[in-house]
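Suppose a colleague, Dr. K., hands you the sequence of a protein chain of 307 amino acids and asks what its three-dimensional shape might be. Before reaching for any lab equipment, you can write down a predicted structure in token form. Begin with the sequence itself:
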Amino acid sequence: MAFLLLCVVWLSWGLSYPLAAIALRGFDVLTLRCAVQLLGALVLLLEAGLSGRSLAIEHAGWRDLAISGLLNMAAFPIGMTLGVYLMSPGRTSVLAYTMPIWATLFGRLMLGEALTAHRLIALALGLGAVIVMVSQDLSGLRDAPLGAALTLLAAFSFGLGTVYLKRGGWSADGSVVTFWQLLIGLVPMGLLWALSPPWSEPGPPGPAQWAALVFIGVMANAAANFAWFRVVRLFPAGISGIGALAVPCVGVASSAWLAQERLTMQDGVAMAMIAAALLCVFAEQFGRGAQTEPITAPSRSSRRGTG
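The predicted structure, expressed as tokens, is then:
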């Protein structure tokens, strides 16, 4: 089941990068982000209503929910979308998935997760892939340095948000938690959209732009985040983050297909290093068995004094 959930995450998030580049031809950055997030929240609200699920969240869980929502559903998507706009979708997907580095480090600091040899090797490979990616000539892109910096900031936010998501320990269903996260992230994005001028100047949207918007809203925001919540509950935060390293492979390959992004030898080397990192993680999981490590978040009483 966990592998199937990861496949949903890999395909939905990976394809969202070139589709975001397509959508940005017809929508400015903030309009696109607000629209897809609102659509994803509405889909999850409909699912919860049809399933008869309560939208209630226990009072003690709101702090972690608010922090993870702002990090995962505001800071990350804005930085990632600006990276797609300023740099390129495939390369943005690679830089965004330095996230496992931060998730592993914060998982160690905040949850006490072990830094095993497999995880350290996987992190080194992931970091090496980023270095290979940014070492190539990107001068032909719109604003590669700013796009890279914003994408790395987004990755930092995603990694920290993943740990807050892991430690939340909510009793509510994953679709309900994801709904509230999307809604929380919409608040700062909506304020930015209302108070600031457009961050880009696209042309009028056509059928391709509307189709890309719908896919990102329904699949990348609703379905993939719902699956991601369950993956984070099943595995330690560091393992979850490193397991998501397949997303940039899908992102780079689909960007060459859908967005006509030209791949270089460095791109291929970076993807190979990411694939090797994934093998390290899965080798550890299959070698030890899925139940070797505790998969539930620590109780609130045991971590009340944490930051």
